[in-house]
Amino acid sequence: MGPINKSREDKETGRVEAFSDGIFAIAITLLVLNLKVPAFESLAGQSLESFLFAQWPVFLAYLLSFATILIMWVNHHHLFSMIRRIDNTFLFINGGLLLVVSFAPYPTSLLAEHIQHDYAVLAMAFYAGMSLLAAIFYNLLWNYASRGNRLLASNVDKNMVEAVNKQYRFGPHIYVVAFMFSFINVWISLLICLLLAIFWAFIGIFGKPEGKARADYQPSQKAV
Amino acid sequence: MGPINKSREDKETGRVEAFSDGIFAIAITLLVLNLKVPAFESLAGQSLESFLFAQWPVFLAYLLSFATILIMWVNHHHLFSMIRRIDNTFLFINGGLLLVVSFAPYPTSLLAEHIQHDYAVLAMAFYAGMSLLAAIFYNLLWNYASRGNRLLASNVDKNMVEAVNKQYRFGPHIYVVAFMFSFINVWISLLICLLLAIFWAFIGIFGKPEGKARADYQPSQKAV
Amino acid sequence: MGPINKSREDKETGRVEAFSDGIFAIAITLLVLNLKVPAFESLAGQSLESFLFAQWPVFLAYLLSFATILIMWVNHHHLFSMIRRIDNTFLFINGGLLLVVSFAPYPTSLLAEHIQHDYAVLAMAFYAGMSLLAAIFYNLLWNYASRGNRLLASNVDKNMVEAVNKQYRFGPHIYVVAFMFSFINVWISLLICLLLAIFWAFIGIFGKPEGKARADYQPSQKAV
Amino acid sequence: MGPINKSREDKETGRVEAFSDGIFAIAITLLVLNLKVPAFESLAGQSLESFLFAQWPVFLAYLLSFATILIMWVNHHHLFSMIRRIDNTFLFINGGLLLVVSFAPYPTSLLAEHIQHDYAVLAMAFYAGMSLLAAIFYNLLWNYASRGNRLLASNVDKNMVEAVNKQYRFGPHIYVVAFMFSFINVWISLLICLLLAIFWAFIGIFGKPEGKARADYQPSQKAV
Questions:
Q1: Which of D109, D103, D73 is closest to A31 using CA atoms?
Q2: Which of B215, C98, C222, D166 is the most exposed place for a label (fewest CB within 10 A)?
Q3: Quick one: how far is CA D214 from the chain centroid?
């Protein structure tokens, strides 16, 4: 009964992951459509160099959003490596998370367009608010799945579950800070978002010993 | 013979699901392209806040369509968890359903653009008509697959098949009502579509006992 | 040795199919971006009804292209159900086919924009030319894979291989006819493309006995 | 222990490959959005033929970028057929590579728009710079994975690893040459990029004996 059960456990999340991967991949690739190529005629005397340099907030917003979605995907991957079962509530929480992911190109574009203009505060607050919402959905997803081991693999490493609990608990609070700073100083708010993205990435890279990292992935015997 | 046969059964739908997942994921992500970011110059004195608030029908249409496609995907997932074999007729009915799914960004955009203007009736009728068409294709797909257990797993739960039969039978009728109401009162028609989306979601979440829900997913031993 | 070898055979095409499925799914979904929603202001007195009716060639081109890509996907699925091994030449022929598939939204859009105007001939020739190119790539792919059973499963049904050979041999010739007719009468050329799409679909649906159809899919034990 | 371990090894890269495939597939398909269909009204006396012919740099850039992304995907496929384990550093190097892939439509569009105008040098340098960056990320990815067999399959063919090492070592150098030539003669720089694409493709097709090619793919027992 054991092995059969185990193989059943593994397969349940397959199609949810495939669908989620699709949305992550499309959202991250659609970001490039925010980068406008100036037609030769529209340059009107301005050099292409100066046009591209003037677009630096667009490129920065592109990089920030690419990194954010990539890190969200890596985290999604981590969580799902510990999750074995699904139910409909879980599907809809995951759907809410995917809503934020697929919506991401919009606040990115808004920020890129307005960070140097009069409405920088609103655009930055919108962007930080979206990041906050994403952090909240990750917490909901993880809390729902991990409470009483509801959807986790039976052999999941308790220490790793506890580590994720800790990391996730403080994420939303910092995004609340970034959100509030957007009304005081847009650039500090942006910096917090950037630093947090770098922090999440480094947590990912250095946050646990190599051996752990492998152990983390090994149980992920899903096919996709 | 038994297990080999069973494993063969499971694999047949794999690539259809992957292709369908791709289309669902892209259609749901393309919706964000309907949300326009105003260039700073084009605001022309209007504040960004008032611009964004004035766009509320666009955001509402975005949310409604996101929820609709997500719910359609969850239902697609449910049906395919009971389906084991495919044939060409099934592939083309599924193709018709995917046509409606991938077309969804258009009526969404039409509704968002016109619900506050003179052509709200036409735009709402178009939107409700699309929802009706989707419901009809789901019925065709399910009837074709389930009649005489044509494409279902041999060990599928008869009660679950009957439950889906019941739920699906009344869906199109309510969308006919929503369609007709679009000619009387656009907002009532929109409300019916919203309520129906919420209803489908709750059916998904609360419509069957936890144990059932798991049983529903467990047979889905497909790799993707 | 036997079963291990067989399982190895099955897996080789997995990632090519996933990548191809992705391109088919995106190309078929991007078609919707050709359908323009008129802004309320731009209607300028014209009713939305008359605007939408005047757009019928756009909708027809959308449907034709959706059907064409869907049928190409079904055929791709069929071929790959018989193919077990891959090599680099095969990957690049498949890449050429994917080039045509992902390019499809362009001639579709060109046809929709110009079929009612002075350059209908050029737009129709472009469209028929693309269909011809697709048919040629399918032939190249199939010939390369099937010659001397180069990449086919060892236990593939010879009759089915022969049936595909026959069907594929005459496809390009009819698209040559459609291409030539585009210079004589655009609408006859379009009709040939439509009829050919319907024909391919019916070949798919009715072209072989049920039992065969199932046998056709059963060997496809790939995971995706 | 052996076979279980082996099956675990195979599965680790599954979801990374699926996510990467998604991004490759979307980036390659989004390229078509760079091809503009002229509205009938906007032709203004110019014939459609002359409009399309004048667009040849756009079509050339489209083909070059399609071929480049396709070849990058084939190479990605090759590398991953030898890689069995992943860790977070690897995920982020792969993320950097995907950044370049998903960014590719932008320099392509820039090149197509400006290669016949005053800013051809900048556009070409941008394009060659991107290709160089892609080559560098491939080297980083491969070096990280292959150093001391860190992430490779234990039974990987040493000769093949050495062959890839050799091929990859000289790639970036040639792109440096192409990059520098963009400041001297744009067309020579473009030609180098074209030749290099053809070279990579031929390496792929003819660079190893048939038997090797199969051996290369057979270990790839991943499900997707």
A1: D103
A2: D166
A3: 22
Which chains, if any, share at least 3 CB pairs under 8 A with chain D?
A, B, C
Q: How confident is the model at residue C100 (pLDDT cuts 50, 70, 90)?
A: very high
**pLDDT tens, B120-148?**
899 999 999 998 998 899 889 988 888 87
- Residue B220 predicted with pLDDT over 50: no
Residue at A113 is within a domain: yes
Which chain A residue lies closest to B32 (C-alpha atoms)?
A103
D28 touches chain A (CB under 8 A): no
Residue C125: pLDDT band with limits 50, 70, 90: very high
Q: Residue A98: its pLDDT value, please?
A: 93
Q: Is C148 left (phi over 0), alpha (psi -120 to 50) or beta?
A: left
Q: Looking at chain C, which subunits does it touch, using at least 3 CB pairs closer than 8 Å as the criterion?
A: A, B, D
The set of residues, in sequence order, having a beta carbon less than 8 Å from that of A125 and lying 6+ positions away, is A179, A182, A183, A189
DSSP state of C117: S
Q: Give the span between the Cα atoms of A64 and A109, in whole angstroms.
A: 11
Whole domain around residue C206: which residue ranges? 2-217
Residue whose tokens read 């070279």: D199
How many domains would you assign to chain C? 1
Rg (CA), chain C: 20
The token duo for B137 is 């294709």
Query: Token pair of B6, please?
Result: 């069973």
Helices (H), D147-209: 158-181, 186-206
Q: Which pLDDT value is given to residue C109?
A: 85
- DSSP codes joined into one string, chain B: -HHHHHHHHHHTTHHHHHHHHHHHHHHHHHGGGGSPPPPHHHHTTS-HHHHHHHTHHHHHHHHHHHHHHHHHHHHHHHHHHHB----HHHHHHHHHHHHHHHHTHHHHHHHHHHTTSTTHHHHHHHHHHHHHHHHHHHHHHHHHHHGGGSSB-TT--HHHHHHHHHHHHHHHHHHHHHHHHTTT-HHHHHHHHHHHHHHHHHHHHHSS-HHHHHHHHTT-----
Residue B28's φ and ψ, nearest 5 degrees, are -70, -30
- Output phi, psi for B8, to 5 deg: -60, -45
Q: Which of residues 103 through 142 in chain B touch C, CB cutoff 8 A?
A: 103, 105-106, 109-110, 113-114, 117-119, 122-123
How many angstroms separate the CA atoms of D174 and D64, rounded?
Answer: 17
Whether D223 maps to a domain, the answer reads no
Residues of B in contact with C77 (CB under 8 A): 15-16, 91
Partner residue opposite C122 with nearest CB, options D33, D48, D74: D48
What's the CA gap between C190 and C128, in Å, rounded? 8
Nearest to A6 by CA among A84, A77, A86, A80: A84
First to last CA, chain B: 24
Cross-strand partners of D152: D83
Q: Which pLDDT score, from 0 to 100, does residue B154 have?
A: 75
Q: Name the percent of chain B lying above pLDDT 90.
A: 8
* Residue in A182, A87, A166, A84 with CA at minimum distance from that of residue A131: A182
What are the φ and ψ backbone dihedral angles of C155, each rounded to 5 degrees?
A: -100, 25
Q: Would you say residue B104 has pLDDT above 70?
A: yes
Which residues face C83 on adjacent strands?
A: C152
Question: Nearest CA to C192 among C113, C132, C112, C102?
Answer: C132
Closest among D20, D147, C14 to A74, alpha carbons compared: D20
Within a domain: A50: yes
Q: What is the pTM of this model?
A: 0.81
Alpha-carbon distances of D197 from A28, D70, D131, D163, rounded to whole Å:
26, 10, 10, 18
Between CA C205 and CA C212, with CA C206 as vertex, the angle to 5 degrees is: 90
CA D211 to CA A77: how far, in whole Å?
A: 36
pLDDT at D99 over 90: yes
Cα–Cα distance between D124 and D186 in angstroms, integer?
6
ipTM of the shown complex: 0.76
